[in-house]
Fold:
Amino acid sequence: MGGAAPSATTGGFALIDNMVSHDETRSEDAPAQPAARPTLKTIARLAGLGVTTVSRALHDAPDIGEETKARVRQLAESLGYQPNRAGVRLRTGRSHVIALVLATEAEELGINSQLIYGISEALSASAYQLVVMLHDPAADPLGPIRDIVEAGAADGILFARIEPNDARVRFLTERGVPFATHGRTDMGIVHPYFDFDNEAYAERAVRRLASLGRRRLALVGPPPGLSYARHMTSGFCRAVAVLNLERVSVGSIDTDSPHERIQDEIHRLMRRADRPDGFVSGGAVAALSVTAGAEAAGLVLGRDFDVVVKESSDLFRKFRPAIETAREDFRTAGKWLAQAIIGRIEGTADVDVHFLDVPRIEVSETVPERVAATVVL
Amino acid sequence: MGGAAPSATTGGFALIDNMVSHDETRSEDAPAQPAARPTLKTIARLAGLGVTTVSRALHDAPDIGEETKARVRQLAESLGYQPNRAGVRLRTGRSHVIALVLATEAEELGINSQLIYGISEALSASAYQLVVMLHDPAADPLGPIRDIVEAGAADGILFARIEPNDARVRFLTERGVPFATHGRTDMGIVHPYFDFDNEAYAERAVRRLASLGRRRLALVGPPPGLSYARHMTSGFCRAVAVLNLERVSVGSIDTDSPHERIQDEIHRLMRRADRPDGFVSGGAVAALSVTAGAEAAGLVLGRDFDVVVKESSDLFRKFRPAIETAREDFRTAGKWLAQAIIGRIEGTADVDVHFLDVPRIEVSETVPERVAATVVL
DNA sequence: ATTCTTTCCTGTAACGTTACAGTAGCCTTA
DNA sequence: TAAGGCTACTGTAACGTTACAGGAAAGAAT
Structure:
């Protein structure tokens, strides 16, 4: 905070000086220092010990006396000592940073913030910090991930929207940099991941629609390049085949398509004689677009067609209980990923950990006064 | 990456070793080093210069010859030199970290991620990193903000959900730590902030409802402790008074109240004879709850009542054009805040910068086929 | 020829931490 | 009593960077 410090800053310093007891100010320095943070040296001087001893005491090393440890710890506590991150990082090479590399387009009603909340929550008890970066994989497959590795900017990397053959996974594996992903590849590379079982989701969604008497089903899945699009599609196709239902194609739309395209496409589709009577959607906004398109064709949800959707919030359950949902919990995913990546960094966890979140279709109970709410959303 | 490195990691190192040309390996070391990152020393050795010279050359210092600068820069470029953050931080005390301290409850359909995208975008061109932390102000007014200051964990801090008399603003001002906020206080402390003009929003919303013939208006505002709740309320009250309308209280509900409470409260309210015929909502989800409650009472949006809502996404415009919206753009806010805080940190910007985003009520054009979509959401 | 400038470069020290190689003192053991 | 081995501590060096105080070489002014 040196340099061109403005007057407000200086004012702040003056205030602090008034509050600080000057008992321990260094004798050689100018008197008006802004309450310098205590370092190991400070504690060592106060305790009459060497810096090394203090460091080792705070690390609970076996060759330091218990009494000394207690004294040092107490002193550190009372001074509010916090190890200097830069010092540790420079010496050990460990940054205590976890980087989350996000794709902007993945935004579906705040899933990324849910992910961030989960990670932050898990990290808040640790010494690790969460750094967030944006990445447009279309522009550059590696993007900031390469930069992070080359600059040593993080101890571990988290990312999502995994492709079956993912350049980032390959790169980080080659470089030996710890990472964990939301989603998985086809590559047979072993690494920690958290995934939602989209195959099971699609299967169960199809079964649910079948149990509602629906026979002609359509899937609005994730963008085809992503791993979980394949999983969802294969679950959908298998269940449709097993149950002897009919599969209706929605053309080239997916959950990332613009609202108007989905709505228009579904609108067109629903005017055909062989229109679908059930939809499985991979995303909340897309399900709204689908419903809007179908309703624009004069059809009624729950009478002429049904929709099952995977959502991360409670919106549908709150406002449109006629649409059935499977909840994908990104906050839990974030927590899990944070713990997994720390495990990888510290070498305490196996490379081969993963979690497959099994979906449950939430059948909305039809509480009378809630039914009216169906009209909205 | 040392310590308990798993086999996968070792495999990675081996691969890299194959790719690295061993021309510049240090003679004294073991031969199988994992492609050490170049430092100033590396460049200095290669250029036959002193480390200081290289440092100053890369900083474009005036006392270094142009030819030397060019040579050093080219060398640095070709080696992929990136300054070591820990070294810089240790020496200069500058962390190049911007901390964003988020309140979880503020989540309204992903506004926090929009904020993060904006900040990240602005920061991606700079040397600064975005660190995200969670904070529950109810549990501890300062929370991680105190920790950041005491640990020197960031050069600047961003936060939102400002209160009229905000402990965080006071604390950071006293400590002289650069910060910028989304929202503003009543305290008369000068600092950079970005705010949405909620007073103007409420006024315009009221005017819009009045122009639709609505006469009995209710406000579902933000939680009363926050600054912008006051702004919105005062704009609302003033416009209602000026236009000679009637103000209907919604009791103790606000945009943070649980869906059921809002819905039930509105439901109850709308069965009274003196029910409101127009709503101004401070948040998207609350507006849905309000609409659900009113519709549960058998009333029809656009006929019996109208709603104006402030939203950060396009959901209403897409799916429920009968509800009119003012768009609050958090991505732009994030960009602005990032630039402002960097300006404060580097001392290039005035303390007294702020931006008041003037709202525009988006009156939905009634394109025929879009009208049908009204049924959804 | 001497001094003074200017230009361009350099070495040293320090930021806070931890790895490593000691060491002083004491207690066992033979 | 000497050797060996613990216990509990310490000093030095190094991580990569930049501030600072020089300083050599070359040209300009006296």
Observations:
- Residues 49-53, 56, 63-65, 68, 87, 89-93 of chain B lie near DNA strand C (CB under 10 Å from a C1').
- Residues 1-33, 365-377 of chain B have pLDDT under 50 and may be disordered.
